[in-house]
Amino acid sequence: MNLAFKDRIALHYLLATAALVAVAYLVVFGVVRDRVYTDLDRNLRLEATKHLGELRVAGPVIRFANREEWEEREHREVQVDPVFIQLSDPQGRLLDRSPNLKADQLAFDAAPGWRAPHNSMLRGKALRQIQVPVEQDGRRMGYLLAAISSEAARHVLDSLGLVLLGSYPVVLLALFGLARGLAGRSIAPIIAITAATNRITRHDLSARVALPPRPDELHTLASAINGLLHRIEQAVAREKQFTADASHELRTPLAALRGTLEVLVRKPRRPEEYVASIGLGIQEIDRLSHLVDQLLLLARFENHGQDLHHQELSVLSSVHDVLHRHRETLSAKCLRVEVPAADALPLRSDPYLLDLILDNLLANAIKYSPAGSTITVALGAADGRLCCAIQDEGIGIRPEDLDRIFDPLYRSDALSHKEISGTGLGLSIVAKACQLLGIELSVASELGRGSTFTLRFPA
Ligand code: ADP
Fold this sequence. Notes:
The longest helix is centred in the middle third of the chain and has 50 residues, at 217-266. The protein folds into three domains: 5-171, PAS domain (Beta-Lactamase, 2-Layer Sandwich), CATH 3.30.450; 217-300, Helix Hairpins, CATH 1.10.287; 310-456, 2-Layer Sandwich (Heat Shock Protein 90), CATH 3.30.565. It is built from ten helices and 14 strands. By secondary structure, the protein is α+β, with helices and mostly antiparallel strands. It has helices spanning 5-52, 67-76, 151-186, 188-199, 217-266, 271-304, 315-325, 327-332, 351-367, 426-437; strands at 55-58, 61-64, 83-88, 94-97, 118-122, 125-136, 139-149, 311-313, 336-338, 347-349, 374-382, 385-391, 440-446, 450-456. α1 (5-52) runs antiparallel to α3 and α6 (271-304) runs parallel beside α10.
């Protein structure tokens, strides 16, 4: 059955209260019944004891001693609540009875259970009856049966039963309606939250769910949804910015290439002019293919991560490999690279990604360093973790840009250094690779004095 949430809550509440109300009704009925019959049974026992003392034993039979006086009283008085008395022999045959019984007899049963007060019937009327054994010198002479009308009691109990039974479904129905109303009120904030989240679209992520006034679970839920929306909004904004920047970065070399070719075809040129223009074109194509390679690498990291192949390796020899690859630029700029000797801890990591990280960081250090300066690559251990700090004496990074240089395509102060080419993708690739390898990456920099990028490898 597909019930609404509030109906489900109301139904569960109803089942629980149905059981509780049923128990309460049974208790009420039992207490009233007990009270009514306790009074009747006390009277019955009193009458039985009184009449036991008024018996006369004649041989094997027992009779009432004051029968005449009794009959006379019967004629004189009107009995509102008559007590019926009967004497029976041990087999239940009638020996004597009170005059008010006329020709009727009280029901008899020799079973011991009948000695206690119990319900019985006479001429279609309800009776409360007791059956007391009569003994003489240890011999069972018979039984004295005493009974009084329990019509009033039965009437009270029947009415009470009817009221309880009749009111049971009404009470349950009222409770269900009440529970449904209360559940509806309790989940109203959830409906408001759903409506608010439905209004939020990809095009307008600025809307937020209104926070419920009380600091309860719904308040926590609404806050969590708002937090999620904030993160989604930021991610979408980053994605939009990235798309705009990427298309701009891709268009720039294409426009430059097109411009060069257009100028070239306008009129016939000398061979050296063709060589120069084609050289420029090749440079733009290289820039474009480098950019596309980096974008693809970043997209691969974003979409699928990277299959990691950890193996025992030395960061020192990886640093030397990278420096060897950049030896021409290093010597062209007369850069000095210092790698102080240190006891480096052994490391298990992915060689491809580690090379990618070191290559990007060292390439930046080389690119942003002035000719003749020094680059220091310090390896060491701190808190049982291997650290590698790449320090340069380059242009440095503005403090306000330190957080942004890891964003894709972001280039700090690019216009002031037009001669230094770049894509703005290297550090975002480094950050992603560090995240995959569990490496902590930090940067410290002072504008105009140099930068230090530090890698803290996992223990
Ligand atoms: P780019 O291709 O522009 O070098 P990166 O993602 O590698 O892209 O770097 C992002 C920006 O961070 C760079 O444009 C530069 O402004 C700054 N940057 C990175 N490394 C250094 C460094 N060693 N010295 C100075 N600035 C740096």
